[in-house]
Amino acid sequence: MEILDSVVIGAGQAGLSTSYHLKRRGLSHVVLDANAAPGGAWQHRWDSLSMHDVHGVAALPDADSPTGEQGRANVVIPAYFGSYEREHDLPVLRPVRVDRVESAGDLLVVRAGNRSWTTRTIVNATGTWSQPHLPYYPGIGSFRGEQLHTRHYPGPEHFRGRRVVVVGGGASAVQLLGEIAPVAADTLWVTRREPVWRTDDFTPDRGREAVALVEDRVRRGLPPTSVVSVTGLALREQEREAERLGAYRRRPMFTRIEPGGVRMPDPPSDDGVLWPADVIVWATGFRPAIAHLAPLRLRSERGGIQLDRGGTTAVADPRVQLVGYGPSASTIGANRAGRAAARGVAAWVSRQAPERLPQPPGRQAPERLPQPPGRQAPERLPQPPGRQAPERLPQPPGRQAPERLPQPPGRQAPERLPQPPAVVSSASSA
Ligand SMILES: Cc1cc2nc3c(=O)[nH]c(=O)nc-3n(C[C@H](O)[C@H](O)[C@H](O)COP(=O)(O)OP(=O)(O)OC[C@H]3O[C@@H](n4cnc5c(N)ncnc54)[C@H](O)[C@@H]3O)c2cc1C
Ligand SMILES: NC(=O)c1ccc[n+]([C@@H]2O[C@H](COP(=O)([O-])OP(=O)(O)OC[C@H]3O[C@@H](n4cnc5c(N)ncnc54)[C@H](OP(=O)(O)O)[C@@H]3O)[C@@H](O)[C@H]2O)c1
Question: In Å, what is the CA distance from 253 to each residue of 144, 175, 355?
Fold first, then answer.
């Protein structure tokens, strides 16, 4: 049986950066990716997201950045990733969707259908795109109109002449409003807290402070917060027309959803006022795609996966690295996390299988290095009492899984919306 040093799960920015650094260190690995083609989540982004619209895509290690290129992001970036995989001869296997990762003594077994890989470590780089977050609001199932999440945004034409509610205060909401408002009959923007607009330039120092805030949460085992909650929002030229139309006049959340629209908490009426709506767009963000890690019981009692100070190693099981998670959920963060994760893998392998790593002459074998007192093998790490696997976490009553979004009779479910030709169908996507 072949034992790999690592299995990287996911071939987006985070997975490719990790694979590059693992390869440089001579660590044996494969990269398993659920998509049928290169490009990570970028290949599924909406057609109207151009390279002019993205915030900037960090260069993969030892490569130029694609940021200055023209065209659709869902074409340019997949092409960039594809040529990177080829040029660096990265060992990517696809389409392979990992179902579960299990502990087997000192090793880990990664399972995908009837295939499996045995490895000393894993690097999880599965992003968030496959986990759209759809909150529950009273009356959600009664709405007669259409509901869709950012993930299934079909472009502005779909909304022409319709009354559209956009929920959420992140970059997606701002950008979708910018496109929808100029063609819609009317838009209503609702957020659960006052949006924070950036008034000054988002300097590298401000960026580092924002990342440090998310890092701190993750180090304490809390779930990562929305990106916008630390970075704030900015309007760009593309959004000026929507701004002129009043689309960014933010309103508080509706009190309930009704068949014909959303009920707004407008005084003086106790009942509020019905805002008639044809469509609700849930721009409510994403959650980490980590269900396949449930058997490893990584989640802390505080709801998130606690990472060490290095920012990528799971405290509950140091065989597991997480990249593109929390503070590294950006292209630049993913890049850096890939390097840190490869370092973490090398450290683990050098302790567990020192013969795997070339040793300079006269160097002490790592297993003879002093170990911190009380160090335990990860599979013997104590689990907090009553710990639940994430998929068994209690759901609020009436909460619906995203794929069960209520649809009006005869209306196509968002995931069945026609896909543009260059985009892999969501059935094979992450
Ligand atoms: C609309 C939008 C625009 C953005 N624009 C920017 C920007 O301009 N600049 C920036 O820095 N960041 C931007 N971001 C954030 C950035 O895209 C992400 O943080 C980063 O690209 C994520 O990279 P990743 O490798 O972690 O994940 P992904 O690109 O999502 O890659 C994850 C890969 O894992 C695979 N996968 C998932 N589950 C499994 C499984 N179980 N088994 C096997 N494979 C699996 C998926 O198929 C996918 O290929 C944007 C995000 C969005 C939503
Ligand atoms: N042009 C671009 O480059 C571009 C475009 C779009 C997105 N992005 C990137 O994509 C990533 C995701 O952005 P995103 O905007 O999709 O997600 P996000 O940043 O996570 O924002 C999600 C929003 O939904 C709100 N929300 C969550 N749960 C809610 C609930 N129950 N009720 C009401 N509102 C709720 C959040 O509010 P709280 O803050 O209160 O939690 C937040 O305002 C970010 O990295 C972003 O920068 C980039």
Answer: 19, 19, 59
Q: What is the pLDDT of residues 311-370, one digit of tens each?
A: 999 999 999 999 999 888 888 889 999 999 999 999 999 998 777 766 544 443 343 333
Higher pLDDT, 366 or 284: 284
CA of 168 to the centre of ligand 2 (A): 6
What is residue 214's predicted lDDT score, i.e. its pLDDT? 83
User: Is the CB of 123 within 6 Å of ligand 2?
Assistant: no
Which numbered atom of ligand 1 lies nearest the CA of 57?
Answer: 9
- Taking CA atoms only, the protein residue closest to ligand 2 atom 9 is 171
Question: Does the C-beta of 153 come closer than 6 Å to ligand 1?
Answer: no
| Amino acid found at 113 | G
For ligand 1, what atom is nearest to the CA of residue 331? 11
What tokens does 416 get? 């069945």
CA of 45 relative to ligand 2 center, distance in Å: 15
Distance CA 327, CA 216 (A): 9
**Residue 228: pLDDT band by 50, 70, 90 thresholds?**
low
Q: What is d(CA 393, CA 348) in angstroms, rounded to the nearest whole number? A: 31
Nearest ligand (C-alpha, residue 65): 1
> How many alpha carbons fall within 13 Å on the CB side of residue 280?
34
Q: What is the pTM of this model?
A: 0.85
Cα of 364 vs centre of ligand 1, distance in Å, is 40
Distance CA 185, CA 196 (A): 27
* Residue 156 CB less than 6 A away from ligand 2: no
Give the pLDDT confidence of 234-283 residue by residue, as tens digits: 898 999 999 999 999 999 999 999 999 999 997 767 778 999 999 999 99
Domains and CATH numbers, the chain: 3-131+286-356 (3.50.50.60), 140-197+233-282 (3.50.50.60)
